[in-house]
């Protein structure tokens, strides 16, 4: 196998710069879909793939893969990320007291929500992460995202795109069948992903959206949020970058806060190195904080780990991420 090693033991743990740089160069997709591209690997989903994915629907069962959006969420204020604040602007009490100003007895309720776009189940957009000042497709970061938002690769461009074949890789259940939960700090390897797919009887290919269940959210539900938002977590190893590239998947999501293993795999200071490789260089769309537990139970019961997946972001102009309510249709 050519390219950087896919064995975490081979990482130079003292030199994250070199390890990130080698993978960024090896798996860079700049120019692959033209100099004006705004979708990255989402281009790998074509109409025929969606038609085939629709054919996977057998039961008509729909499973939401979203966590709740409320004040009881995981956020702790890091970089001003807070949980949603939901406020009522009109209520039933107002209607009962007839102080809303409406005629003939009609009343109503209205509400407003204030929240960071990445506080719960969400997609990372292509303008979310930069590599040495460069954004997706080799653009200067400052030319892409300004105080006006993402002027080039805003999440709105993906609003009608993210419908495809979904594949669940329940790595937690595969590696820890007794608990279904990987330990915090466990680095999922390419070999783990391939072994899980083989055990489930699925293949991963062009245009697929891969969902990786670690089991951390299930543990969090049982034990409390703790440091779910930003603390130690199982997740993908930096060494999976080659697998993410060669499989030609369109997107990937996990049930963790940060997608990749935490702490990151270096003894020197490092922060989310796999993000730095796959978003600005590969153009890969990443989902985080998805709730994959009910889906995992359904897949284990049926023995089928592929389904139609719809996960449209809100078309928020210029946003670098979006809250979503992804649904799997079985």
TrEMBL record:
Coiled coil spans: none
Cited InterPro entries: KFase/CYL, KFase_sf
Region of interest (Disordered), residue spans: 72-99
Domain of life: Bacteria
GO BP annotations listed: L-tryptophan catabolic process to kynurenine
A single GO molecular function term of this UniProt record: arylformamidase activity
Name of this protein: Cyclase
Species: Microbacterium lemovicicum
Lineage: Bacteria, Bacillati, Actinomycetota, Actinomycetes, Micrococcales
């Amino acid at each position: 196998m050519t390219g950087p090693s896919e064995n975490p033991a081979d990482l130079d743990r003292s030199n994250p710069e070199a390890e990130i740089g080698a993978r960024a160069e090896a798996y860079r997709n700049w120019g692959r879909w033209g100099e004006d591209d705004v979708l990255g690997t989402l281009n790998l989903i074509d109409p025929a793939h969606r038609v085939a994915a629709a054919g996977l629907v057998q039961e008509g069962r729909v499973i939401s893969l979203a966590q709740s959006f409320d004040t009881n969420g995981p956020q702790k204020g890091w970089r001003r990320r807070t949980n949603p604040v939901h406020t009522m602007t009109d209520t039933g009490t107002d209607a009962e007291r007839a102080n809303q100003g409406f005629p003939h007895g009609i009343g109503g309720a209205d509400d407003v929500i204030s929240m960071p776009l990445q506080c719960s189940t969400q997609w990372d957009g292509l303008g979310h992460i930069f590599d040495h000042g460069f954004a997706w497709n080799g653009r200067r970061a400052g030319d892409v995202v300004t105080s006006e938002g993402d002027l080039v690769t805003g999440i709105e461009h993906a609003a009608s795109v993210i419908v495809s074949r979904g594949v669940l890789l329940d790595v937690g259940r595969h590696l820890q069948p007794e608990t279904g939960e990987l330990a915090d700090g466990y680095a999922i390897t390419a070999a783990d992903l391939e072994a899980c797919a083989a055990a489930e009887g699925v293949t991963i290919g062009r245009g697929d959206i891969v969902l990786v269940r670690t089991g951390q959210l299930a543990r969090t539900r049982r034990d409390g949020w703790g440091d779910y938002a930003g603390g130690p977590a199982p997740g993908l190893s930096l060494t999976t970058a080659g697998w993410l590239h060669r499989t030609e998947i369109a997107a990937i999501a996990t049930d963790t806060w940060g997608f990749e293993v935490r702490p990151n795999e270096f003894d020197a200071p490092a922060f989310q190195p796999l993000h730095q490789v796959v978003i600005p260089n590969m153009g890969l769309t990443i989902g985080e904080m998805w709730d994959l537990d009910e889906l995992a139970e359904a897949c284990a019961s049926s023995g089928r780990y592929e389904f139609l997946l719809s996960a449209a972001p809100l078309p928020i102009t210029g946003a670098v991420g979006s809250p979503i309510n992804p649904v799997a249709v079985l």
